[in-house]
Design brief:
The complex is a heterodimer of chains A (75) and B (372). Helix content of chain A is 21%, strand content 40%. Chain A has 75 residues and is of the alpha+beta class. Chain A is elongated, with a radius of gyration of 16 Å. Chain B folds into two domains: 132 residues, Rossmann fold (3-Layer(aba) Sandwich), CATH 3.40.50; 154 residues, HypD, alpha/beta domain 2 (Rossmann fold, 3-Layer(aba) Sandwich). Chain B is an alpha/beta fold and 372 residues long. In chain B, strand 10 and strand 11 form a beta hairpin. In chain B, helix 2 runs parallel beside helix 17 and helix 8 packs across helix 13. Classes of the chains: A alpha+beta (75), B alpha/beta (372). At the A-B interface, strand 4, strand 5 and helix 1 of A face helix 1, helix 7, helix 8, helix 10 and helix 12 of B. The structure holds iron/sulfur cluster.
Chain lengths: 75, 372
């Protein structure tokens, strides 16, 4: 139920966008809850985009992980 | 770019956890976390590291009460068209399930999104009721829909719920010694990390907001383990690529405009203060409970029983694992579910039934497989 899937906005008209989920599926998505431009990635849940994702944040995750994992384990 | 399934990193985390010599009990409140946990066998990798994790009340279908299901059944019997998400169909209510009602010729329609329900309402003359379940991930879509002037034959049976009050209730009840919480990534995408700060302070419990890839979850566990070891109770965010401290402010505003908190019961729990989302008075004309008050009078005096032997209540409070229910896999299966935890794709019982058997002979994580 709370699963949300990332997809790329390929077209947008008002609050309705066409989102490409990468496996050949294109769906109409309501984007009224986010500020998004064509070409950007959104996280879609039950037909609504709930967040805009960017590559910078994805890189940030990998950096965060590396940082945490490189710390010594406290005995 | 959004795939996080590197096996070496996973092995590194597991090794570190093992070195820590842990014996901890964690809880999460999200069906999708449970799916990742069991689907990829992380539960089996973590147990030898001294980490036990259970799902609490984190399945919207499962926590919907028999009374609420009965409301939908009554409205269907009275000739309304009921629209809802697929997982709700088979949940047994007092007088059958939505699926069995459909079998008797009543009109029940499964939708992928509330948008489909509104479109249906535009096409027909009958009343179309959307049986609205879900936490803060889903509620903004209901709110945005009501703000966009849906047709007058469209209404909402709101069973939306807020997660933070349930987390508090869980800690307040103190039935299990929860040492750390994994907070749900997509609920948190909407509400942000701040609502958890108060919980951390009040109950002195460490929390990590985590995503849904296997590595997200392992990382979340590791972050929690570190906090537990250090005796800290912070709110950490592992899912930075989706969750901002302030959440999605636009969605929050929309949700707040349409809903107000109300006290509701959750399956397995007593009434949890401020945990329900009630339509504000301004939206009364879309509130099925107001519109069909007369029809729903039937509910009064009805008694609701838990199916005999079903231990969903304890599953939802994180007290037992599915195989501890005597009906699990014998009397209760996804084909003929006894309780909602076996119906919903997000219920602990159905997840355990689906993937649990993989535990045999499973040696390492199958990071590559298991595409959703
Ligand atoms: S196995 Fe079935 S009967 Fe037992 S707790 Fe789970 S859903 Fe309920």
């Amino acid at each position: 139920m709370c699963l949300a899937i990332p997809g790329r906005v390929v077209e947008k008209e008002g609050d309705v966008a066409r989102v490409d989920f990468g496996d050949g599926t294109l769906r109409e998505v309501d984007v009224s809850l986010v500020e998004v431009k064509v070409g950007e990635y959104v996280l879609v849940h039950a037909g609504f985009a709930i967040q805009v994702l960017d590559e910078e944040d994805a890189r940030e995750t990998l950096k965060l992980w590396e940082e945490i994992l490189s710390q010594e384990v406290t005995p | 770019m959004f795939r996080f399934r590197d096996r070496t990193t996973a092995e590194r985390i597991i090794k570190k956890l093992r070195e820590m010599g842990l014996n901890i009990f964690l809880m999460h409140v999200c069906g999708t976390h449970q799916d990742t946990l069991v689907r990829y066998g992380l539960d089996c990798m973590l147990e030898p590291c001294g980490v036990k994790i259970r799902q609490g009340p984190g399945c919207p279908v499962c926590v919907t009460t028999p009374e609420e299901i009965e409301e939908a059944l009554i409205l269907a019997r009275k000739g309304k068209i009921i629209t809802t998400f697929g997982d709700m169909m088979k949940v047994p209510g007092e007088s059958g399930s939505l699926q069995s009602m459909r079998g008797k010729g009543h009109r029940i329609q499964v939708v992928y999104s509330i948008r489909d329900a509104v479109e249906l309402a535009r096409r027909v003359r009958e009343d179309v009721v959307f049986f609205a379940i879900g936490f803060e991930t889903t509620a903004p879509s209901t709110a945005a829909t009501l703000l966009s002037d849906p047709p007058s034959n469209f209404s909402i049976l709101s069973c939306h719920r807020y997660i933070p009050p349930a987390v508090k209730a869980l800690l307040e009840m103190g039935e299990t010694r929860i040492q750390g919480l994994i907070e749900p990534g997509h609920v948190s995408t909407v509400i942000g990390t701040r609502p958890y700060e108060e919980i951390a302070e009040r109950y002195r419990i460490p929390q990590v907001v985590a995503g849904f890839e296997p590595l997200d979850l392992l990382m979340g566990v590791y972050m929690l383990a570190q906090m537990i070891r250090k005796g800290e109770w912070r709110v950490a965010n592992e899912y930075v690529r989706s969750v901002k401290p302030e959440g999605n402010t636009k969605a929050l505003k929309v949700m707040d405009e349409v809903f107000e908190p109300t006290d509701v019961a959750w399956r397995g729990f007593p009434v949890i203060p401020g945990s329900g989302m009630k339509l504000r008075q301004r939206f009364e004309e879309y509130d099925a409970r107001t519109l069909f008050e007369d029809e729903l009078k039937e509910l009064r005096g009805m008694e609701f029983r838990t199916p005999s032997g079903c231990r969903c209540d304890e599953i939802l409070r994180g007290i037992i694992d599915p195989p501890e229910c005597p009906l699990f896999g014998r009397v209760c299966t996804p084909q003929s579910p006894v309780g909602p935890c076996m119906v919903s794709a997000e219920g602990s019982c159905s997840i355990e039934y689906k993937y649990g058997r993989r535990k045999i002979n499973r040696e390492s994580i199958q990071m590559g497989s298991g595409k959703r």
